[in-house]
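lol so apparently i was supposed to do this last week
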Amino acid sequence: MGKYIEMIRIRFLMMLAYRTNYYSGILIYSINIGAYYFLWSAIYGGKENIQGLSITQMTTYIAVAWMARAFYFNNIDREIAMEIKEGKVAIEMVRPYPYLNMKMMQGLGEGIFRLLFFSVPGMVIVALVFPVELSANAGTWIYFFISIGFSFIINTQINLLAGIATFFLFNNDGLIRAKRVVIDLFSGLILPLSFYPMWAQNIMSYLPFQGISYIPSMIFTEGFKGSQVFEALINQAVWSAILIIPVYVLWILAKRQLVVQGG
Amino acid sequence: MENIIDVQNLKKEFKSYSSRQGLKGAFRDLFTRNYTIKTAVDDISFSIKRGEMVGYIGENGAGKSTSIKMLTGILTPTDGKIVVNGMNPHKEREKFVKTIGVVFGQRSQLWWDIAVQESFRLLKKIYNVPDQQYEEHMKDVIETLDIGPLLDKPVRKLSLGQRMRCELAAALIHNPPLLFLDEPTIGLDVLVKLKIREFLKRINEKYGTTILLTTHDLSDIEALCERVVMLDEGKIIYDGPLKELRENWAEGKQIQFQFSEKATLEELQNLTKDHLVVWEQGESDLIWIASVDSDETVISGVIGKVTAVKKIADLKILEISTEEIIRNIYVEGAVRHG
Ligand SMILES: Nc1ncnc2c1ncn2[C@@H]1O[C@H](COP(=O)(O)OP(=O)(O)OP(=O)(O)O)[C@@H](O)[C@H]1O
Ligand SMILES: [Mg+2]
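anyway here it is w/ adenosine-5'-triphosphate bound
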Protein backbone atom coordinates (compact mmCIF):
# COMPACT_ATOMS: atom_id res chain seq x y z
CA MET A 1 0.00 0.00 0.00
CA GLY A 2 2.83 2.35 0.95
CA LYS A 3 4.27 2.14 -2.54
CA TYR A 4 0.98 3.18 -4.14
CA ILE A 5 0.67 6.23 -1.92
CA GLU A 6 4.30 7.09 -2.62
CA MET A 7 3.61 6.79 -6.37
CA ILE A 8 0.62 9.12 -6.10
CA ARG A 9 2.81 11.57 -4.20
CA ILE A 10 5.58 11.40 -6.79
CA ARG A 11 3.15 11.98 -9.65
CA PHE A 12 1.73 14.89 -7.73
CA LEU A 13 5.25 16.34 -7.40
CA MET A 14 5.87 15.89 -11.11
CA MET A 15 2.68 17.74 -11.95
CA LEU A 16 3.66 20.48 -9.54
CA ALA A 17 6.98 20.84 -11.36
CA TYR A 18 5.07 21.63 -14.54
CA ARG A 19 2.20 23.55 -12.98
CA THR A 20 2.47 26.53 -15.31
CA ASN A 21 1.02 24.29 -18.04
CA TYR A 22 -2.14 24.22 -16.01
CA TYR A 23 -2.81 27.90 -15.73
CA SER A 24 -3.46 27.99 -19.45
CA GLY A 25 -5.61 24.87 -18.97
CA ILE A 26 -7.93 26.69 -16.59
CA LEU A 27 -8.40 29.39 -19.20
CA ILE A 28 -9.16 26.89 -21.97
CA TYR A 29 -11.73 25.08 -19.85
CA SER A 30 -13.36 28.38 -18.86
CA ILE A 31 -13.60 29.44 -22.49
CA ASN A 32 -15.14 26.07 -23.36
CA ILE A 33 -17.70 26.40 -20.62
CA GLY A 34 -18.45 29.99 -21.68
CA ALA A 35 -18.93 29.01 -25.30
CA TYR A 36 -21.35 26.21 -24.37
CA TYR A 37 -23.18 28.57 -22.04
CA PHE A 38 -23.89 31.06 -24.84
CA LEU A 39 -24.77 28.27 -27.24
CA TRP A 40 -27.29 26.80 -24.82
CA SER A 41 -28.72 30.24 -23.95
CA ALA A 42 -29.48 30.66 -27.65
CA ILE A 43 -31.01 27.20 -27.90
CA TYR A 44 -33.17 27.67 -24.81
CA GLY A 45 -34.14 31.18 -26.01
CA GLY A 46 -36.71 31.76 -23.24
CA LYS A 47 -37.92 28.17 -22.90
CA GLU A 48 -38.35 27.07 -19.29
CA ASN A 49 -36.71 23.71 -19.76
CA ILE A 50 -35.67 21.17 -22.35
CA GLN A 51 -35.68 17.44 -21.63
CA GLY A 52 -36.32 18.18 -17.97
CA LEU A 53 -33.29 20.47 -17.53
CA SER A 54 -33.61 24.21 -16.88
CA ILE A 55 -31.08 26.63 -18.36
CA THR A 56 -29.36 26.97 -14.96
CA GLN A 57 -29.18 23.20 -14.62
CA MET A 58 -27.82 23.01 -18.12
CA THR A 59 -25.09 25.53 -17.36
CA THR A 60 -24.24 23.74 -14.16
CA TYR A 61 -24.19 20.45 -16.06
CA ILE A 62 -21.70 21.79 -18.60
CA ALA A 63 -19.52 23.39 -15.92
CA VAL A 64 -19.39 20.36 -13.70
CA ALA A 65 -18.90 17.97 -16.61
CA TRP A 66 -15.77 19.83 -17.63
CA MET A 67 -14.46 20.13 -14.10
CA ALA A 68 -15.05 16.43 -13.44
CA ARG A 69 -13.24 15.69 -16.67
CA ALA A 70 -10.15 17.33 -15.19
CA PHE A 71 -10.22 14.65 -12.50
CA TYR A 72 -11.00 11.48 -14.43
CA PHE A 73 -9.08 12.39 -17.55
CA ASN A 74 -5.50 11.15 -17.83
CA ASN A 75 -2.91 10.33 -20.41
CA ILE A 76 -1.88 6.91 -19.22
CA ASP A 77 -2.97 5.36 -22.53
CA ARG A 78 -0.40 7.49 -24.32
CA GLU A 79 2.15 6.87 -21.60
CA ILE A 80 1.78 3.11 -21.86
CA ALA A 81 2.02 3.31 -25.64
CA MET A 82 5.19 5.37 -25.36
CA GLU A 83 6.75 3.10 -22.77
CA ILE A 84 6.15 0.16 -25.04
CA LYS A 85 7.46 1.86 -28.16
CA GLU A 86 10.59 3.12 -26.47
CA GLY A 87 11.26 -0.14 -24.68
CA LYS A 88 10.81 1.42 -21.26
CA VAL A 89 8.49 -1.40 -20.21
CA ALA A 90 11.69 -3.38 -19.68
CA ILE A 91 12.37 -1.30 -16.59
CA GLU A 92 8.77 -1.66 -15.45
CA MET A 93 9.02 -5.42 -15.75
CA VAL A 94 11.97 -5.61 -13.35
CA ARG A 95 10.08 -3.75 -10.66
CA PRO A 96 8.25 -5.71 -8.00
CA TYR A 97 4.81 -4.25 -8.58
CA PRO A 98 1.84 -4.88 -10.82
CA TYR A 99 2.42 -2.54 -13.74
CA LEU A 100 -1.22 -1.72 -14.41
CA ASN A 101 -2.02 -0.90 -10.78
CA MET A 102 0.95 1.42 -10.68
CA LYS A 103 -0.18 3.14 -13.86
CA MET A 104 -3.62 3.59 -12.37
CA MET A 105 -2.08 5.19 -9.28
CA GLN A 106 -0.13 7.57 -11.46
CA GLY A 107 -3.39 8.53 -13.12
CA LEU A 108 -4.90 9.07 -9.70
CA GLY A 109 -2.01 11.32 -8.63
CA GLU A 110 -2.60 13.34 -11.76
CA GLY A 111 -6.35 13.46 -11.13
CA ILE A 112 -6.02 14.61 -7.53
CA PHE A 113 -3.59 17.31 -8.60
CA ARG A 114 -5.98 18.62 -11.23
CA LEU A 115 -8.95 18.40 -8.90
CA LEU A 116 -7.18 20.62 -6.35
CA PHE A 117 -5.29 23.03 -8.56
CA PHE A 118 -7.63 23.16 -11.50
CA SER A 119 -11.20 22.11 -10.87
CA VAL A 120 -11.66 23.87 -7.54
CA PRO A 121 -10.28 27.29 -8.61
CA GLY A 122 -11.87 26.81 -12.03
CA MET A 123 -15.27 26.13 -10.49
CA VAL A 124 -14.99 29.24 -8.32
CA ILE A 125 -14.27 31.39 -11.38
CA VAL A 126 -17.07 29.79 -13.36
CA ALA A 127 -19.54 30.22 -10.49
CA LEU A 128 -18.73 33.94 -10.35
CA VAL A 129 -19.16 34.49 -14.06
CA PHE A 130 -22.03 32.20 -15.07
CA PRO A 131 -25.32 31.39 -13.38
CA VAL A 132 -24.46 27.95 -12.05
CA GLU A 133 -26.26 26.44 -9.13
CA LEU A 134 -24.30 24.54 -6.52
CA SER A 135 -26.37 22.22 -4.44
CA ALA A 136 -26.68 22.90 -0.73
CA ASN A 137 -27.51 19.25 -0.13
CA ALA A 138 -24.61 17.36 1.52
CA GLY A 139 -25.95 14.07 0.13
CA THR A 140 -25.66 15.34 -3.43
CA TRP A 141 -22.01 16.21 -2.88
CA ILE A 142 -21.23 12.83 -1.35
CA TYR A 143 -22.93 10.94 -4.19
CA PHE A 144 -21.17 13.16 -6.67
CA PHE A 145 -17.73 12.37 -5.24
CA ILE A 146 -18.48 8.64 -5.15
CA SER A 147 -19.65 8.95 -8.71
CA ILE A 148 -16.54 10.70 -10.04
CA GLY A 149 -14.49 8.05 -8.23
CA PHE A 150 -16.21 5.49 -10.47
CA SER A 151 -15.78 7.79 -13.47
CA PHE A 152 -12.06 7.70 -12.84
CA ILE A 153 -12.02 3.92 -12.58
CA ILE A 154 -14.07 3.34 -15.74
CA ASN A 155 -12.18 5.90 -17.81
CA THR A 156 -8.81 4.63 -16.59
CA GLN A 157 -9.70 1.02 -17.39
CA ILE A 158 -10.64 2.06 -20.91
CA ASN A 159 -7.34 3.93 -21.13
CA LEU A 160 -5.47 0.84 -19.98
CA LEU A 161 -7.17 -1.20 -22.71
CA ALA A 162 -6.20 1.35 -25.34
CA GLY A 163 -2.65 1.49 -23.99
CA ILE A 164 -2.17 -2.26 -23.85
CA ALA A 165 -3.43 -2.52 -27.42
CA THR A 166 -0.05 -1.05 -28.40
CA PHE A 167 1.47 -4.46 -27.69
CA PHE A 168 -0.52 -5.86 -30.60
CA LEU A 169 -0.87 -2.93 -32.96
CA PHE A 170 2.44 -1.26 -32.20
CA ASN A 171 1.26 2.05 -33.56
CA ASN A 172 -2.08 2.87 -32.06
CA ASP A 173 -2.14 6.67 -32.08
CA GLY A 174 -5.23 6.48 -34.25
CA LEU A 175 -6.99 4.16 -31.86
CA ILE A 176 -6.19 6.40 -28.90
CA ARG A 177 -7.47 9.49 -30.71
CA ALA A 178 -10.64 7.72 -31.79
CA LYS A 179 -11.20 6.52 -28.24
CA ARG A 180 -10.95 10.09 -26.98
CA VAL A 181 -13.63 11.32 -29.40
CA VAL A 182 -15.91 8.40 -28.58
CA ILE A 183 -15.62 9.10 -24.88
CA ASP A 184 -16.24 12.84 -25.20
CA LEU A 185 -19.27 12.12 -27.36
CA PHE A 186 -20.84 9.08 -25.71
CA SER A 187 -20.07 9.99 -22.13
CA GLY A 188 -22.36 13.01 -22.21
CA LEU A 189 -19.62 15.58 -21.83
CA ILE A 190 -20.71 17.65 -24.80
CA LEU A 191 -24.41 16.87 -24.77
CA PRO A 192 -26.45 15.28 -21.97
CA LEU A 193 -27.46 11.80 -23.08
CA SER A 194 -31.16 12.62 -22.59
CA PHE A 195 -30.83 14.90 -25.63
CA TYR A 196 -29.87 12.05 -27.96
CA PRO A 197 -32.57 10.27 -29.99
CA MET A 198 -34.21 7.38 -28.22
CA TRP A 199 -32.52 4.63 -30.25
CA ALA A 200 -29.10 6.13 -29.51
CA GLN A 201 -29.92 6.37 -25.83
CA ASN A 202 -30.88 2.71 -25.90
CA ILE A 203 -27.57 1.72 -27.39
CA MET A 204 -25.63 3.92 -24.98
CA SER A 205 -27.35 2.48 -21.98
CA TYR A 206 -25.58 -0.78 -22.79
CA LEU A 207 -22.17 0.92 -22.95
CA PRO A 208 -19.90 1.99 -20.09
CA PHE A 209 -19.36 5.55 -21.36
CA GLN A 210 -22.32 7.21 -19.63
CA GLY A 211 -20.66 6.29 -16.33
CA ILE A 212 -17.78 8.59 -17.14
CA SER A 213 -19.49 11.96 -17.42
CA TYR A 214 -23.27 11.85 -17.74
CA ILE A 215 -23.94 10.14 -14.41
CA PRO A 216 -21.81 12.34 -12.12
CA SER A 217 -23.00 15.51 -13.87
CA MET A 218 -26.64 14.49 -13.57
CA ILE A 219 -26.13 13.72 -9.89
CA PHE A 220 -24.49 17.08 -9.32
CA THR A 221 -27.22 19.06 -11.07
CA GLU A 222 -29.84 16.98 -9.28
CA GLY A 223 -31.20 15.91 -12.63
CA PHE A 224 -31.36 12.42 -11.10
CA LYS A 225 -33.65 12.10 -8.14
CA GLY A 226 -34.18 9.49 -5.42
CA SER A 227 -33.70 5.93 -6.60
CA GLN A 228 -32.34 7.16 -9.96
CA VAL A 229 -29.16 8.19 -8.14
CA PHE A 230 -28.64 4.73 -6.68
CA GLU A 231 -29.41 2.99 -9.94
CA ALA A 232 -26.86 5.22 -11.62
CA LEU A 233 -24.20 4.50 -8.99
CA ILE A 234 -24.85 0.77 -9.25
CA ASN A 235 -24.53 1.01 -13.02
CA GLN A 236 -21.10 2.61 -12.56
CA ALA A 237 -20.02 0.05 -9.96
CA VAL A 238 -21.02 -2.82 -12.22
CA TRP A 239 -19.09 -1.41 -15.17
CA SER A 240 -16.04 -0.80 -12.96
CA ALA A 241 -16.12 -4.48 -12.05
CA ILE A 242 -16.88 -5.82 -15.54
CA LEU A 243 -14.05 -3.91 -17.18
CA ILE A 244 -11.49 -5.60 -14.95
CA ILE A 245 -11.97 -8.75 -17.04
CA PRO A 246 -10.93 -7.49 -20.50
CA VAL A 247 -8.08 -5.48 -18.96
CA TYR A 248 -6.77 -8.55 -17.21
CA VAL A 249 -7.15 -10.88 -20.19
CA LEU A 250 -5.55 -8.44 -22.60
CA TRP A 251 -2.67 -7.88 -20.19
CA ILE A 252 -1.95 -11.61 -19.90
CA LEU A 253 -1.95 -11.94 -23.68
CA ALA A 254 0.22 -8.84 -23.98
CA LYS A 255 2.86 -10.10 -21.56
CA ARG A 256 3.19 -13.27 -23.57
CA GLN A 257 3.60 -11.13 -26.67
CA LEU A 258 6.00 -8.69 -25.05
CA VAL A 259 8.98 -7.83 -27.16
CA VAL A 260 11.26 -5.19 -25.80
CA GLN A 261 12.68 -2.89 -28.38
CA GLY A 262 16.30 -1.91 -28.45
CA GLY A 263 19.18 -2.24 -26.03
CA MET B 1 28.96 -23.67 -3.75
CA GLU B 2 25.43 -23.32 -5.00
CA ASN B 3 24.49 -22.00 -8.39
CA ILE B 4 22.76 -18.68 -8.34
CA ILE B 5 22.06 -18.77 -12.08
CA ASP B 6 21.34 -21.97 -13.91
CA VAL B 7 20.56 -21.88 -17.61
CA GLN B 8 19.85 -24.92 -19.75
CA ASN B 9 19.38 -24.98 -23.50
CA LEU B 10 18.06 -21.46 -23.51
CA LYS B 11 16.72 -20.22 -26.80
CA LYS B 12 15.04 -17.07 -28.03
CA GLU B 13 13.59 -16.55 -31.46
CA PHE B 14 12.21 -13.26 -32.73
CA LYS B 15 9.63 -13.15 -35.47
CA SER B 16 10.06 -10.17 -37.66
CA TYR B 17 7.31 -9.36 -40.09
CA SER B 18 8.01 -8.03 -43.52
CA SER B 19 5.50 -6.23 -45.71
CA ARG B 20 4.66 -7.33 -49.21
CA GLN B 21 4.95 -4.86 -52.02
CA GLY B 22 2.16 -2.87 -53.59
CA LEU B 23 -1.55 -2.59 -52.96
CA LYS B 24 -2.22 -6.24 -53.60
CA GLY B 25 0.57 -7.13 -51.22
CA ALA B 26 -0.78 -4.84 -48.53
CA PHE B 27 -4.16 -6.49 -48.92
CA ARG B 28 -2.66 -9.96 -48.58
CA ASP B 29 -0.75 -8.75 -45.50
CA LEU B 30 -4.09 -8.22 -43.81
CA PHE B 31 -4.68 -11.95 -43.81
CA THR B 32 -1.33 -13.68 -43.76
CA ARG B 33 1.88 -11.90 -43.08
CA ASN B 34 5.33 -12.90 -44.15
CA TYR B 35 7.83 -13.27 -41.40
CA THR B 36 11.36 -14.39 -40.88
CA ILE B 37 12.63 -15.98 -37.70
CA LYS B 38 15.77 -14.61 -36.11
CA THR B 39 17.41 -16.77 -33.46
CA ALA B 40 18.96 -14.26 -31.08
CA VAL B 41 19.99 -16.78 -28.42
CA ASP B 42 20.66 -20.25 -29.66
CA ASP B 43 20.62 -23.11 -27.19
CA ILE B 44 22.99 -21.86 -24.52
CA SER B 45 23.72 -23.43 -21.14
CA PHE B 46 25.80 -22.13 -18.27
CA SER B 47 25.71 -21.62 -14.55
CA ILE B 48 27.06 -18.98 -12.22
CA LYS B 49 27.97 -19.48 -8.60
CA ARG B 50 27.31 -17.17 -5.69
CA GLY B 51 29.84 -14.37 -5.45
CA GLU B 52 31.20 -14.71 -8.98
CA MET B 53 31.76 -11.72 -11.25
CA VAL B 54 31.26 -12.85 -14.81
CA GLY B 55 31.87 -10.88 -17.97
CA TYR B 56 29.38 -11.57 -20.73
CA ILE B 57 30.91 -10.46 -23.99
CA GLY B 58 30.35 -10.69 -27.70
CA GLU B 59 30.02 -8.59 -30.82
CA ASN B 60 27.11 -6.25 -31.44
CA GLY B 61 24.02 -8.32 -31.96
CA ALA B 62 25.52 -11.45 -30.42
CA GLY B 63 22.52 -11.85 -28.12
CA LYS B 64 23.84 -10.50 -24.82
CA SER B 65 21.01 -8.11 -24.03
CA THR B 66 18.45 -10.69 -25.13
CA SER B 67 19.92 -13.21 -22.68
CA ILE B 68 19.88 -10.68 -19.88
CA LYS B 69 16.28 -9.81 -20.61
CA MET B 70 15.36 -13.47 -20.29
CA LEU B 71 17.40 -13.90 -17.11
CA THR B 72 15.65 -10.94 -15.53
CA GLY B 73 12.18 -12.15 -16.50
CA ILE B 74 11.46 -9.41 -19.03
CA LEU B 75 11.25 -11.72 -22.03
CA THR B 76 9.84 -15.23 -22.17
CA PRO B 77 12.29 -17.75 -23.60
CA THR B 78 11.22 -19.61 -26.72
CA ASP B 79 12.69 -22.74 -25.23
CA GLY B 80 14.91 -23.90 -22.38
CA LYS B 81 15.09 -23.66 -18.64
CA ILE B 82 16.18 -20.79 -16.42
CA VAL B 83 16.54 -20.89 -12.67
CA VAL B 84 17.80 -17.71 -11.04
CA ASN B 85 17.93 -17.30 -7.27
CA GLY B 86 16.00 -20.57 -7.12
CA MET B 87 13.07 -19.19 -9.12
CA ASN B 88 11.72 -19.13 -12.63
CA PRO B 89 12.08 -15.43 -13.48
CA HIS B 90 9.06 -15.23 -15.74
CA LYS B 91 6.66 -17.27 -13.62
CA GLU B 92 7.24 -15.62 -10.25
CA ARG B 93 8.06 -12.20 -11.61
CA GLU B 94 7.13 -9.97 -8.69
CA LYS B 95 8.78 -12.12 -6.04
CA PHE B 96 11.78 -12.76 -8.25
CA VAL B 97 12.63 -9.19 -9.16
CA LYS B 98 12.96 -8.29 -5.49
CA THR B 99 16.05 -10.49 -5.42
CA ILE B 100 17.88 -8.88 -8.32
CA GLY B 101 19.23 -5.51 -9.31
CA VAL B 102 19.38 -4.43 -12.95
CA VAL B 103 21.11 -1.59 -14.76
CA PHE B 104 20.61 -1.03 -18.46
CA GLY B 105 23.25 1.44 -19.54
CA GLN B 106 21.08 2.49 -22.45
CA ARG B 107 17.98 3.45 -20.55
CA SER B 108 17.24 5.17 -17.31
CA GLN B 109 15.29 3.63 -14.49
CA LEU B 110 15.08 6.86 -12.54
CA TRP B 111 12.13 9.19 -12.92
CA TRP B 112 13.22 11.92 -15.25
CA ASP B 113 11.50 14.97 -13.77
CA ILE B 114 12.02 14.50 -10.07
CA ALA B 115 15.06 14.78 -7.82
CA VAL B 116 17.25 11.72 -7.50
CA GLN B 117 16.44 11.33 -3.84
CA GLU B 118 12.71 11.27 -4.60
CA SER B 119 13.36 8.37 -6.95
CA PHE B 120 15.34 6.64 -4.22
CA ARG B 121 12.57 7.23 -1.73
CA LEU B 122 10.00 5.75 -4.09
CA LEU B 123 12.20 2.73 -4.79
CA LYS B 124 12.72 2.25 -1.08
CA LYS B 125 8.93 2.04 -0.67
CA ILE B 126 8.56 -0.19 -3.70
CA TYR B 127 11.13 -2.65 -2.40
CA ASN B 128 9.87 -2.31 1.14
CA VAL B 129 13.31 -1.58 2.58
CA PRO B 130 13.29 -0.90 6.34
CA ASP B 131 14.54 2.57 7.34
CA GLN B 132 17.50 1.31 9.29
CA GLN B 133 18.79 -0.98 6.56
CA TYR B 134 18.33 1.79 4.02
CA GLU B 135 20.27 4.30 6.13
CA GLU B 136 23.21 2.00 6.72
CA HIS B 137 23.50 0.57 3.26
CA MET B 138 22.72 3.63 1.17
CA LYS B 139 24.99 5.92 3.15
CA ASP B 140 27.84 3.69 2.16
CA VAL B 141 26.71 3.44 -1.46
CA ILE B 142 26.22 7.19 -1.80
CA GLU B 143 29.63 7.85 -0.31
CA THR B 144 31.50 5.33 -2.44
CA LEU B 145 29.86 6.51 -5.63
CA ASP B 146 30.25 10.11 -4.53
CA ILE B 147 26.73 11.13 -5.50
CA GLY B 148 25.79 13.04 -2.34
CA PRO B 149 25.79 16.44 -4.08
CA LEU B 150 23.60 15.12 -6.91
CA LEU B 151 20.73 13.88 -4.81
CA ASP B 152 18.57 16.99 -4.93
CA LYS B 153 18.95 17.50 -8.68
CA PRO B 154 16.35 16.31 -11.17
CA VAL B 155 17.66 13.42 -13.25
CA ARG B 156 17.25 15.28 -16.53
CA LYS B 157 19.86 17.78 -15.38
CA LEU B 158 22.56 15.20 -14.69
CA SER B 159 25.41 14.36 -17.03
CA LEU B 160 25.64 10.80 -18.32
CA GLY B 161 28.34 9.83 -15.84
CA GLN B 162 26.50 11.39 -12.94
CA ARG B 163 23.30 9.69 -13.96
CA MET B 164 24.94 6.31 -14.37
CA ARG B 165 26.33 6.44 -10.83
CA CYS B 166 22.85 7.25 -9.58
CA GLU B 167 21.39 4.41 -11.64
CA LEU B 168 23.82 2.02 -10.01
CA ALA B 169 22.86 3.25 -6.57
CA ALA B 170 19.17 2.91 -7.47
CA ALA B 171 19.67 -0.70 -8.56
CA LEU B 172 21.20 -1.46 -5.17
CA ILE B 173 18.64 0.12 -2.87
CA HIS B 174 17.36 -3.28 -1.77
CA ASN B 175 20.88 -4.71 -1.62
CA PRO B 176 20.15 -7.61 -3.98
CA PRO B 177 22.38 -10.69 -3.97
CA LEU B 178 22.52 -10.65 -7.77
CA LEU B 179 23.23 -7.77 -10.09
CA PHE B 180 22.79 -7.63 -13.87
CA LEU B 181 24.61 -4.85 -15.66
CA ASP B 182 24.07 -4.35 -19.38
CA GLU B 183 26.77 -2.00 -20.60
CA PRO B 184 27.05 0.04 -17.41
CA THR B 185 30.14 1.92 -18.56
CA ILE B 186 28.93 2.91 -22.03
CA GLY B 187 30.02 6.45 -22.85
CA LEU B 188 31.74 7.17 -19.54
CA ASP B 189 35.10 8.82 -18.99
CA VAL B 190 38.04 6.98 -17.49
CA LEU B 191 37.64 8.36 -13.99
CA VAL B 192 33.97 7.49 -13.71
CA LYS B 193 34.72 4.05 -15.11
CA LEU B 194 37.36 3.53 -12.46
CA LYS B 195 34.99 4.68 -9.75
CA ILE B 196 32.29 2.30 -10.93
CA ARG B 197 34.72 -0.60 -11.12
CA GLU B 198 36.00 0.05 -7.63
CA PHE B 199 32.47 0.26 -6.39
CA LEU B 200 31.48 -3.03 -7.99
CA LYS B 201 34.53 -4.74 -6.53
CA ARG B 202 33.68 -3.38 -3.15
CA ILE B 203 30.09 -4.57 -3.05
CA ASN B 204 31.21 -7.93 -4.37
CA GLU B 205 33.66 -8.25 -1.48
CA LYS B 206 31.46 -6.75 1.17
CA TYR B 207 28.14 -8.43 0.41
CA GLY B 208 29.23 -11.29 -1.82
CA THR B 209 27.04 -9.84 -4.58
CA THR B 210 27.07 -11.92 -7.74
CA ILE B 211 27.54 -9.79 -10.84
CA LEU B 212 26.87 -10.56 -14.48
CA LEU B 213 28.13 -7.78 -16.68
CA THR B 214 28.12 -7.08 -20.40
CA THR B 215 30.44 -4.52 -21.88
CA HIS B 216 32.38 -3.68 -24.98
CA ASP B 217 35.20 -2.25 -22.89
CA LEU B 218 37.47 -5.18 -22.18
CA SER B 219 39.39 -3.26 -19.56
CA ASP B 220 36.19 -3.47 -17.46
CA ILE B 221 36.36 -7.22 -17.76
CA GLU B 222 40.06 -7.33 -17.05
CA ALA B 223 39.61 -5.23 -13.95
CA LEU B 224 36.64 -7.13 -12.59
CA CYS B 225 36.01 -10.57 -13.96
CA GLU B 226 37.96 -13.74 -13.60
CA ARG B 227 35.55 -15.56 -15.81
CA VAL B 228 34.18 -14.62 -19.19
CA VAL B 229 31.37 -16.07 -21.23
CA MET B 230 31.72 -15.21 -24.88
CA LEU B 231 28.78 -15.22 -27.22
CA ASP B 232 28.76 -15.25 -30.97
CA GLU B 233 25.60 -15.30 -33.06
CA GLY B 234 23.63 -16.52 -30.08
CA LYS B 235 25.95 -19.38 -29.20
CA ILE B 236 28.49 -19.60 -26.40
CA ILE B 237 31.90 -19.92 -27.95
CA TYR B 238 33.96 -19.65 -24.80
CA ASP B 239 33.24 -20.01 -21.11
CA GLY B 240 36.17 -19.99 -18.74
CA PRO B 241 38.85 -17.95 -17.05
CA LEU B 242 40.01 -14.82 -18.78
CA LYS B 243 43.58 -15.88 -18.04
CA GLU B 244 43.25 -19.04 -20.07
CA LEU B 245 41.82 -17.15 -22.98
CA ARG B 246 44.82 -14.90 -22.91
CA GLU B 247 47.30 -17.73 -22.65
CA ASN B 248 45.86 -19.67 -25.53
CA TRP B 249 45.60 -16.74 -27.81
CA ALA B 250 48.42 -14.45 -26.87
CA GLU B 251 50.97 -16.87 -28.15
CA GLY B 252 53.38 -14.38 -29.53
CA LYS B 253 55.24 -11.35 -28.31
CA GLN B 254 56.39 -8.31 -30.16
CA ILE B 255 59.80 -6.71 -29.74
CA GLN B 256 60.01 -3.11 -30.79
CA PHE B 257 63.43 -1.75 -31.65
CA GLN B 258 64.22 1.88 -32.09
CA PHE B 259 67.56 2.19 -33.89
CA SER B 260 69.81 5.22 -33.85
CA GLU B 261 70.54 4.73 -37.54
CA LYS B 262 68.48 3.59 -40.49
CA ALA B 263 67.79 -0.12 -40.85
CA THR B 264 66.45 -2.11 -43.78
CA LEU B 265 64.27 -5.17 -43.87
CA GLU B 266 66.84 -7.39 -45.59
CA GLU B 267 69.49 -6.39 -43.12
CA LEU B 268 67.32 -7.34 -40.15
CA GLN B 269 66.03 -10.52 -41.74
CA ASN B 270 69.58 -11.49 -42.42
CA LEU B 271 70.64 -10.91 -38.84
CA THR B 272 67.87 -13.08 -37.41
CA LYS B 273 67.72 -15.79 -40.05
CA ASP B 274 68.24 -18.51 -37.41
CA HIS B 275 64.90 -17.72 -35.76
CA LEU B 276 61.30 -17.55 -36.83
CA VAL B 277 60.72 -13.82 -36.89
CA VAL B 278 58.33 -11.59 -38.77
CA TRP B 279 59.71 -8.07 -39.22
CA GLU B 280 57.49 -5.09 -39.70
CA GLN B 281 58.33 -1.46 -40.01
CA GLY B 282 57.00 0.85 -37.29
CA GLU B 283 56.19 4.54 -37.50
CA SER B 284 59.51 5.50 -39.11
CA ASP B 285 62.40 3.66 -40.72
CA LEU B 286 64.19 3.81 -37.39
CA ILE B 287 61.49 1.74 -35.69
CA TRP B 288 61.08 -1.95 -36.44
CA ILE B 289 58.89 -4.56 -34.82
CA ALA B 290 59.76 -8.24 -34.59
CA SER B 291 56.92 -10.64 -33.92
CA VAL B 292 58.17 -13.83 -32.33
CA ASP B 293 56.96 -16.83 -30.37
CA SER B 294 56.83 -16.37 -26.60
CA ASP B 295 59.94 -18.41 -26.11
CA GLU B 296 62.85 -17.24 -23.99
CA THR B 297 65.61 -18.50 -26.29
CA VAL B 298 64.01 -16.91 -29.31
CA ILE B 299 63.45 -13.58 -27.59
CA SER B 300 66.94 -13.31 -26.14
CA GLY B 301 68.45 -14.70 -29.35
CA VAL B 302 66.81 -12.06 -31.50
CA ILE B 303 67.68 -9.22 -29.15
CA GLY B 304 71.27 -10.45 -28.83
CA LYS B 305 71.85 -10.79 -32.57
CA VAL B 306 70.36 -7.41 -33.39
CA THR B 307 71.99 -5.40 -30.62
CA ALA B 308 75.38 -6.94 -31.36
CA VAL B 309 75.40 -5.30 -34.77
CA LYS B 310 73.14 -2.28 -34.58
CA LYS B 311 72.99 0.57 -32.09
CA ILE B 312 69.61 0.95 -30.46
CA ALA B 313 68.01 3.93 -28.74
CA ASP B 314 65.06 2.10 -27.23
CA LEU B 315 63.69 -1.40 -26.84
CA LYS B 316 60.22 -2.57 -25.81
CA ILE B 317 58.66 -5.99 -25.44
CA LEU B 318 54.95 -5.80 -26.10
CA GLU B 319 52.32 -8.27 -25.12
CA ILE B 320 49.33 -8.71 -27.34
CA SER B 321 46.45 -6.91 -25.63
CA THR B 322 43.24 -8.61 -24.63
CA GLU B 323 41.52 -6.28 -27.01
CA GLU B 324 43.51 -7.73 -29.88
CA ILE B 325 42.90 -11.26 -28.71
CA ILE B 326 39.17 -10.75 -28.57
CA ARG B 327 39.25 -9.11 -31.95
CA ASN B 328 41.02 -12.11 -33.38
CA ILE B 329 38.45 -14.42 -31.86
CA TYR B 330 35.57 -12.37 -33.26
CA VAL B 331 37.19 -12.50 -36.67
CA GLU B 332 37.73 -16.23 -36.54
CA GLY B 333 34.37 -16.81 -34.87
CA ALA B 334 35.59 -19.66 -32.70
CA VAL B 335 37.90 -20.27 -29.79
CA ARG B 336 40.93 -22.51 -29.97
CA HIS B 337 41.38 -24.58 -26.90
CA GLY B 338 44.85 -25.09 -25.48
N1 LIG C 1 12.67 -7.10 -30.60
C1 LIG C 1 13.41 -7.73 -31.51
N2 LIG C 1 12.87 -8.15 -32.68
C2 LIG C 1 13.61 -8.78 -33.61
N3 LIG C 1 14.91 -9.04 -33.47
C3 LIG C 1 15.53 -8.64 -32.34
C4 LIG C 1 14.81 -7.96 -31.31
N4 LIG C 1 15.66 -7.69 -30.29
C5 LIG C 1 16.86 -8.17 -30.69
N5 LIG C 1 16.79 -8.74 -31.91
C6 LIG C 1 17.90 -9.36 -32.64
O1 LIG C 1 18.53 -10.30 -31.80
C7 LIG C 1 19.94 -10.25 -31.94
C8 LIG C 1 20.59 -10.07 -30.59
O2 LIG C 1 20.31 -8.79 -30.08
P1 LIG C 1 20.85 -8.30 -28.68
O3 LIG C 1 20.23 -6.99 -28.40
O4 LIG C 1 20.69 -9.37 -27.68
O5 LIG C 1 22.40 -8.11 -28.98
P2 LIG C 1 23.58 -7.64 -28.03
O6 LIG C 1 24.51 -8.79 -27.90
O7 LIG C 1 23.04 -7.07 -26.79
O8 LIG C 1 24.26 -6.53 -28.91
P3 LIG C 1 24.89 -5.12 -28.50
O9 LIG C 1 26.28 -5.40 -28.10
O10 LIG C 1 24.84 -4.37 -29.79
O11 LIG C 1 24.05 -4.53 -27.43
C9 LIG C 1 20.22 -9.12 -32.91
O12 LIG C 1 20.52 -9.68 -34.16
C10 LIG C 1 18.95 -8.34 -32.98
O13 LIG C 1 18.74 -7.84 -34.27
MG1 LIG D 1 22.98 -5.10 -25.95
